């Protein structure tokens, strides 16, 4: 990975890389939690591959200290779609998928055996929170491309999606979009709408472990193609 990004005291996202302005929540995090000092180098990214180095002055004003660098987008997009599960596990899953380098995270609309269902109001609020989780995880991971956390989507509407299932074929480099079922699994009919079944190992994993395993395996194949 790029050493300037790795070595920076903190990494933050801004709207415009040429005139970077830090948002209030990030300013609080940098100054109060990470205790960034004026002499520290931070890196700033627009989440679309552009990044530069800065220092943080009084009142969290950013001063650019380098040219703008451009990191190419990943050679192929990796997507994990997962069914909603109880408690804070969706947040945990989004955080880990972001750290691992997944590009697109999709919350699946309820399927037959789903226990957790979000109404429209709740979905809106929860997705906003999950986008914030992804943003923070991407800062911690020094990503220059922010993952896209999509709105709740029906399984059948996702192109080229493979269904994670212990009876599937072992995951290989051709699998780039994977759906993880709810605790009760997908029905046979639901599994049939995908491009095929893909196995993540010979044990039955909890949904969130399956999501992380799919992410690790897919990103490892992508790394080796680079
Ligand atoms: N009782 C369910 C288990 C569901 S686990 C069943 O037997 O199908 C939740 C989800 O995790 C599953 O729907 C599946 O998508 C995924 N999963 C769990 N273990 C897996 C494995 N070994 N390979 C692929 N997917 C797996």
Would you mind describing this structure in some detail?
It is a single chain. Helices cover 31% and strands 23% of the residues. The chain has helices at 3-7, 24-33, 89-100, 120-140, 188-191, 207-225; strands at 10-13, 42-45, 50-56, 62-64, 69-70, 79-83, 104-108, 148-153, 162-170, 177-180, 196-199. It contains 6 helices and 11 strands. The protein folds into 2 domains: 3-70, Hypothetical PUA domain-like, domain 1 (Ribosomal Protein L25, Chain P); 79-225, SPOUT methyltransferase, trefoil knot domain (Alpha/beta knot). It starts with a helix and ends with a helix. By secondary structure, it is an alpha/beta fold. α3 (89-100) runs parallel beside α4 and α3 (89-100) packs parallel to α6 (207-225). Bound molecules: S-adenosyl-L-homocysteine (SAH). S-adenosyl-L-homocysteine binds at residues 164-166, 180-181, 183-186, 199-201, 203-205, 207, 210.
In short:
The protein has 6 helices and 11 strands. It is an alpha/beta fold.
List the helices and strands and how they pair.
Layout: H1 3-7, E1 10-13, H2 24-33, E2 42-45, E3 50-56, E4 62-64, E5 69-70, E6 79-83, H3 89-100, E7 104-108, H4 120-140, E8 148-153, E9 162-170, E10 177-180, H5 188-191, E11 196-199, H6 207-225
Parallel strand pairs: 1-2, 6-7, 6-10, 7-8, 9-10, 9-11
Antiparallel strand pairs: 2-3, 3-4, 3-5
Helix pairs in contact: 3-4, 3-6
